[in-house]
Amino acid sequence: MEFTKSLLKGKLIKRYKRFFVDVNLNKEIVTAHCPNTGSMKGLLDEGNEVYLFKHDDPKRKLKYGLEIIKVKRNFVGVNTHRANKIVYHGLNNNLIRELRNNDKINSEVFFNKETRFDFLIEKKGQKSFLEVKNVTLFRDKNIAEFPDAVTARGSKHLLTLIDAIKRGYKSYLIFLVQIQNMEYFKIAKDIDSKYYENYLMAKKEGVKFLAYRCNISSKKIYINKKIKIIDE
Prior knowledge:
Number of helices: 3
Radius of gyration: 18 Å
Helix content: 10-25%
Strand order of the largest sheet: 7-8-9-12-14-15
Number of strands: 16
Order of helices and strands: EEEEEEHEEEEEHEEHEEE
Structural class: alpha/beta
Oligomer: single chain
Shape: globular
Largest sheet: 6 strands, mixed
Distance between the termini: 33 Å
CATH topology of the largest domain: Trna Endonuclease, Chain: A, domain 1
């Protein structure tokens, strides 16, 4: 997935009210939209290098949007709205080895009245649901983790993926690691032990878990490597 224009580099001042970040951009302080409502644990130190997208829409209240934060020499993609676009690009270009050569790829498909999954994939008559989780947390130098806060919604998705299997679908969940240089992935069970329990149960029931790392730059982000999931 390519950005339609190059990103602008600045220095993070602070994030506040979940949706706003102040950034020093060319010696001017600007307020940008933060398209990530999560905790963004470990990413928000003052002075971190950040990259902003400048919007051309005159109707937008905020001209800039936060896209990337550089932490410990690693670019981290923080725009959760781009995660599905990155995965869609990966599916269309056969970058996800377990989900290649699909006949149909549908986005945002309802499984029931309460839950919709990010993708419904069809291949040779087999239908598979795919849920995407954007990963931005790393505490060790080469291990990505999810979640970065307690996520009841994430646990609900795991249980619903199990239900999908019982109804004849295949179920996949991809941890999209938008962090450079990661070689491993694990569930942050110290942050959300219930999610870890549900993850183990879903795995036992047949949900397929994948972790793929992205190549990230100020011009594009795309899936480039499968990484190993560590179960502890």
